[in-house]
Amino acid sequence: MRETSGSGQACWHIQITGMVQGVGFRPYLYRLAQDYGLLGWVLNDGEGVELEVQGPRAALAGFLEALPREKPPLAQIHGLTKQERPPGTFTRFEIRASVLHSRPQVLIPPDLAICPQCREEVLAAGERYHHYPFTNCTYCGPRFTVVKGLPYDRVRTSMAAFEMCPECAADYRNPLHRRFHAQPTACSRCGPQVTLLDREGVPLSGHWEERFSVLLRAGKIFAVKGIGGFHLVCSALNQEAVQRLRQAKKRPFRPLAVMAKDVATVKKYCRVSPLERETLLGPAAPIVILETKPGAVPENLAPRQKTLGVMLPYSPLHILLFTAETDLLVMTSGNARGLPIVKDNEEALRDLSPFADYFLVHNREIVNRCDDSVVRVIQGGVHFYRRSRGYVPAPVALTLDTEADVLGCGGEMKNTFCLIQGRNAFLSQHLGDMTYLEGLENYRRALRHLQGLLQIAPRIIGYDLHPQYSVTPLVRGLFEGPDETEGEAEGNKNVKREGGIQRSGGIKKEGGIKGSGGIKRNEQVPVRFFAVQHHHAHLASAMADNALEGEVIGAILDGTGYGTDGTLWGFEILSGGYRSFTRQVHLAPVPLPGGERAVLNPWLTATAYLLTYLGEEGKSLAERCFPGREKDVAQVARMLEHEVNAPGASGAGRLFDAAAALLGICLTSTYDGQAAMELGELARVSLSAGGFSSAAALGPGEPASDRVDDTWQEYRVGQCVSGESASYPFGLRDGILEADGLLRGILRDRQAGFAVRKIAVKFHRSVAQMVLAGVKEAFRHTGLRRVVLSGGVWQNPLLLDLALELLSANGFTVYTHRSVPANDGGLSLGQAVAAYHMWLSEQS
Amino acid sequence: LAHGDGGILTHELIKGVFQKYLTAPELLALTDAALLPGAGTIALTTDSFVVNPLFFPGGDIGKLAVAGTVNDLAVSGSKPKYLTAGFILEEGLDLALLERAVASMAATAESCGISLVAGDTKVVERGKGDGIYINTTGIGFKDENASLGYERIEPGDKILLNGGIGEHGVAVLAERAGFTFDQTILSDCAPLNTLITPLLETFGPAVKFMRDPTRGGLATTAKEIALASGRDLWLEETAIPVRAEVRGATEFLGLDPLYLANEGKCILITAASMADEIVVSSAVFRQGKGAP
Ligand SMILES: [Fe+3]
Ligand SMILES: [Mg+2]
Ligand SMILES: [Zn+2]
Ligand SMILES: [Zn+2]
């Protein structure tokens, strides 16, 4: 017991909100109360944790002081209130049963990677946990993916199906045990089990681990059921297996994510900075994009990239997949192109049999599918490429405190939605592509589920201005109809992608979740819809992500988004705030021949650029740049001339496409953003040549150790060789940026025999200069000095680096995304915050 | 072209061009309205035709103006009988073009047994029209073998289609913009009553519903059917016929054949048990194969 001095008894009632359930908070309080010799009780309720402690005042003060300081690593305290109570007749400190409330305010933790203690138990000899794939404790294990409702108790998870054995039950009830109230706790005697199936669904005889390792070595491909869904798995070092997987998935070039046995293994293949190491080992265990060591990994894992997306085993099952021979596995999400990740066993046997030879399944239901998260460390900061497993549904904290609940619908690709209640913005897991019915149905379910868990009934809804985004009619069907539970527009289900022009909001009937008492502050608010322009949403997202108020300049470099003038935007220097914006500067639009087809064929965009800026000369240049496609060039010319399916677009992504095609780097794209990624990678590697040589000194044979890679050195902009420092000229008149100078420059340099990688660098510098020029112009009109960067193109680390340097050097304060992705995965946050402010300004 | 004002010139136009081809006795009577013998339920439809270019592979505005209206009558379960035509001509139009279009109208009307019985002509200033606009109004009599209706569509029914989609849309687009593809794509523009009337004779009430997927294509029409009937329609993408040359052209142009216009296609909905029989008995539907 801790020493405290002083006298006088008191009783305090304490209420704690935040991430305080499912993270070992009650046993922690139990132990702390014991430490200070206090009596009373603690319980979980719908708002968080509630406790009463009684004892000497000095001990109480010591307890309260230690409480936030010594809390469990994963717990987050958002609020703590204390009230004096008349002393009770307590004889001990006890943990009482959870109290159900109509309206939970507690936060559900995200899924947590296996903790070191559990890992040890799985690998150690023993009986209950030895090689048991579902070992977990209060500090680790599945949460969001198994939870059906709140409070977070076993009966409201998919673990309810498994009755605890006497030992597990005893640990679960023992306040001093690591598994005290660990809701998904299980052991080999009582918990879920793994089965290895063939394609017909017939179980293989023998122990699954042995069979698995033999088949893995034989180059087989597996569909493995994990935490948030299925992965397609094969040995990453077996090029044949990888190639077979690529062929089946029709993904010739897209980088495949891998899982490495441990950190030492990661270092065998990649360079790892201290922050990257910390991120890999953190409780979220995301895929981290790392620089590969030259020659260390097979080329076909990430063709044309010097990086690799790597994660560590985050569940005991994953640990057991590795063998002495195979320390690197391909772990790509188990889905067909454009469809949600598969989560159920039958679904896997049906939908993944074109890809997988065997199926490693288990009998714990995945309640919420959840893809792996993807991050990259740039300039000493962790940037999200995809925020999903390990982070969702933890909220992003806002500076505002909303009076009514808000929904941001998200975009058409890389979709997430965002629910805001009070100060918390809950972004959904990655829901991805909304092109197909399956994606939309997944969206509907995920939205209903999170709404139910958090008891959020949105009244203010922000959606993209694009008249054909598929989620808009779906959300309207859910929230504006008389029966909002199941009656979404029948007709919309029938045909793939039927949009229809959306009305802008009008006063609608009351919607929201039925039952559960409703939400007082929401009750008077009719459901209102607000269209938010795509790049305004990006701006608002970046502002909210950085807790900014007032007005800023937004440099939004994106693929394409629907503009207020009906054309496609995407290279925008905006000024404004949450409520409204002004388009200060933008790239001149160029027609995209075939619309979406041009996005898949960068050479078409390049041809359109040439034809638009250089006319007849451009035509012959295009014919020279793309030999064998002369006839197609002529057709493109006719499409432009007759305006046949050639919508004007000003996307920065398309400018990168055009440059990549003109340089012969990528003429057709086999995955989203391929051309821009390959162009960016070529330039980045060209600039970081110095960095590479130091890595090469390590060599692939370097003894794998767990020490921090001290040879790590991030490349700096200043390191570039001369000749690359120049940039191409461009025009800026009346707020319109013209890229014809870039085009001519690239073609001239190419003809002069300048190395492609150097042209690529020069191109990046030019784009950064265009951004600077646009920002300066916006500054001239507004006097604003704060600049937010948003849009998918900012995931290009070199461009980000160059622009940060240029803008800072010119006196601007620059903000990049921190908690949500710069791409459309962060769009919903901006939509929600913008819609809320539009609503607010209507109220006044 | 100065035929716009002045009775004499109009008269010459009528005599010289229209009456040369359009010879129904009801029309030749040159009365203000046609008196039409017939009994039973009358079907009436009207449509205006604006197409650029006026002549395209597989058809022209004249053929389109007849087939479009005839098809609307046919898919609503009636036998096309009488047609009226209103022309809006642009000053300066080459008379030879007009003549070709009218001749084509006549030939199409003849081929499907509809009589063109009334007409009108106006001339607008140069630059105020695309050469020729045609409005046609069609009258038909309900086919006693037909009992069609949205309400007859039931779960499990099959959707049949009489051939490849998107041909008209691509043919017109290609001609307008001067696209050249390895193989010329012909518009499917054709009257459907010659297919539908015998079909209804054989199968009668087994045919539950029909629509012609014109503007907006198969997808848009399917959506309209779904909304009106309150039923989900499932179109299996791989079962929908698209000619290879249409597929190639739409891929290049970045267009979706599901959303391109057809002018000689019929969506037919029938009970699953009757689907095979209809497909087998009809040469045309055999080509189109059934979409489950
Ligand atoms: Fe975007
Ligand atoms: Mg019509
Ligand atoms: Zn653990
Ligand atoms: Zn057990």
TrEMBL record, chain A:
Annotated pathway: Protein modification; [NiFe] hydrogenase maturation
Matches recorded under Pfam families: Acylphosphatase, HypF_C, HypF_C_2, Sua5_yciO_yrdC, zf-HYPF
Residue ranges annotated for the Acylphosphatase-like domain, each copy included: 11-97
Enzyme class: ligase
Residues of the active site: 26, 44
Biased composition (Basic and acidic residues): 490-500
Residue ranges constituting the YrdC-like domain according to the UniProt record: 206-390
InterPro entries in the record: Acylphosphatase-like_dom (IPR001792), Acylphosphatase-like_dom_sf (IPR036046), Acylphosphatase_CS (IPR017968), ATPase_NBD (IPR043129), Carbamoyltrans_HypF-like (IPR051060), Carbamoyltransferase_HypF (IPR004421), DHBP_synth_RibB-like_a/b_dom (IPR017945), HypF_C (IPR041440)
Alphabetical GO biological process terms: protein maturation
Stretches for region Disordered: 482-520
EC number in record: 6.2.-.-
Molecular functions per Gene Ontology: acylphosphatase activity; carboxyl- or carbamoyltransferase activity; double-stranded RNA binding; ligase activity; zinc ion binding
Stated family: Belongs to the acylphosphatase family.
PANTHER family: CARBAMOYLTRANSFERASE, CARBAMOYLTRANSFERASE HYPF
Name of the protein in question: Carbamoyltransferase
Organism: Acididesulfobacillus acetoxydans
